[in-house]
Design a protein that fits this description.
mainly beta; 3-stranded antiparallel sheet; elongated
Length: 91
Amino acid sequence: MDPCSTTVINTWSIAPRTVRNGEVDVYEFAEATDTVQVYNNVNTLCGPREYTVLNPDGSAVAYNGWVSVAKKTGSTTQYEITSKPMNELVE
């Protein structure tokens, strides 16, 4: 039996962030772990994770490219959320 088919993602969240128009915010976070990974002490044993930025109500963010999530360069367990809202109609 594949233990990854029933693994549980450990409780994990990121507090809401606020970024003003024209500013840049980079938030670093550690990759979420699961019970199989922790028990066996092997990162990504059940495969890589994918992350999505959502609004506080759980709906998808209509970000048009101003926010991204990527693995931090040179790291195996750290990610970065980079936010750079730019609306030229707002001064």
